[in-house]
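Researcher: Structure for this, please.
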Amino acid sequence: MSNLKTILNEIKQVFGIKLADSNLGKTKAEKKAKKSIVQIHEQKFDKPLGQLHKATGKLVFSDSNLPLHNIQLELWDRDIGTPGDYLGTGITDYNGQFTIYYDPAKAGFLDTPDLELRLLENRISFDSDNQPVSTYRIVYTIKGEDNVNQKEFDFGTCSVPYWLYKPDSHFARLFFSELEGTPDDYSVGRTLQGYDAASSLVPIKAKHVITNTLHPEQPTLPEIQAAYPPNLTIKLDHKNPGYTRSDEYFVLRVLNGMNPCFFLRHKNNPNQLKVRFNWDAYEKDNHHDLNNVEAFFELKDNNLVVTAITVQSRYPDSVAPHSPLKDPVTYTPSNGEKWLQAKRIFRTNSFFAAEMIEHYIKAHLQMEQYTIAAFRNLRKNPVRLMLFPHVKSLVNINQRADEVLVSPTVGLVTTNGPLTPGSVVQVCKERMASYDWKGWKPRQPLCEAHTFAKIANLYWQVLTEYIDIFFQDYQEEIVKEWAEIHRFSDDIVEHSVAYQPLPKISGDYDWYDDNELDKPDIPRPTVNGTVKATRAITVVDQPTQTDIDNLKELCRYVIFHLTLWHSWVNDSQADEGGEIFYNSLALRGGSFGSEDDPAIAPNIIESTNLIYMVNVLTIIKYGYILKNEDGDVPQELRTTLARYKKEFADLGYEIGNIRTLVNI
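Model: Predicted structure, token format:
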């Protein structure tokens, strides 16, 4: 019965994708997007103000009872079976209070108005003259009384479920209803690309799952690999057989791959460096190997050379944190096949850390705290023009990432990786507890081949110039509506995780660069006795120059991670994990063995799931800064970035590949 259920689920996925990709599916998606669009009416009256009626009230967030400020409102006469009659418009003040004047005669002949309050959210794009254009949609309605004839009607204090924080969450996460979805929509173009991308890949995986359900030894790993598009390593080896298993390529991926690793430098010899992955503090699952690894490197004439890899394995029954370990064994290039296998073990550690930490935690989970706070608080302040193109869609994709990456039952990281679901959550807590924007900047290059660090610093320069231009153009309005920034900052700090420094490095090595590390000497805020990981931008409604500099620094940090960092890590997934013999999230059977040994590689289902998922997560090509498909990226960013096209190209990087936002 379970086999039949598995097969039916796979067939259902294929059918669902095909239907959504049909003209009917596309039409439905377009209509859904257009349905929420409303136009703002101008407030015009034929009567003096004294002859008008008015509606008053106060709006508060339902999760905090704090005022819902600066939100656009419309007052309507609610008519059953007809569109209703527009009566007036207004906006809440910083106390959440509003007053809307209206002429009751606008409800229609002999019709006493049945009042309804509509809350509107606007998104801003730019026209061909770079002028902002707002599009409004209804996000919530509040039903007032029927047949209101008094001159002044008070809606009272209304609790609004607007961009709510998820209660009892370890992190700042959006609360959403399974029935209603999130308050943020994908662009129609992104939605349709998602259908197109998945429709080519879902049938491949479904065929493998169904075949394996009926015939447990099938398909073979080579058959699985051949069914998917060739990735970077397969293409490179087709041109130059064996290149991707070489020491040269190994070094390049450690420096510039999906996980551009952070190096430790020997305290007494600056030319000796290493990268390590240590999992002693975490519980291992029962299906995969978990190895601690250290790769040692030497700088020679501004080139980095790998010299040794140390592997320390757990015993088969050592699943608990801090379990006994086998003695570490060191391998060098002179060890032949064992050296190749040690490099593969290191690659799996790096890939697993990249998927869980550098991708999910740093780019997705961390950025949600800034996203929710921005949508809750930024409506009049021009900084929203800078942030919204990048933070939109994040909560949507994060809900999906919770399932496809870290779900205890089907998540790629939790089922294909070596840690238990509880340990994955533990890693999330530890990492989030040390991340912050204050004092952060990209690492410095280690050597000539460290192109990631060079590109990151060049992009940091682009963002610095762009943000300086933006603040110069909009500073008066930024300062005028600083109260929104104050509330934005308060929300971030209030919902930040508690601060917890990462363990200090002991022994003969220390970090080669502290640019991306936390700066413990910079004070952190304390809320209800808890020191928070994320620092405040400001604590006042009228900013100092330090406050303005803080805001610029936070914007640069957030935009960097939502654009270049996520683009780099996300779009390299298929490069690293698209060939099952080159890399995977974990190995089995002792880890040491030839690439074509199926007892060492992931099993059949894990293999097809991995290749399927890394392709899905890279195949959607929508939402780029320079393409500006949704028309909402400020011109200042696009022109500043474009000026550096040659400098990026000289580093081998195409700036057209930088995504505007995290929508995949």
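Researcher: Any notable elements?
Model: Confidence is low (pLDDT under 50) at residues 11-41. The chain has two domains: 1-35+167-256+352-441+448-479+534-664, 38-160.
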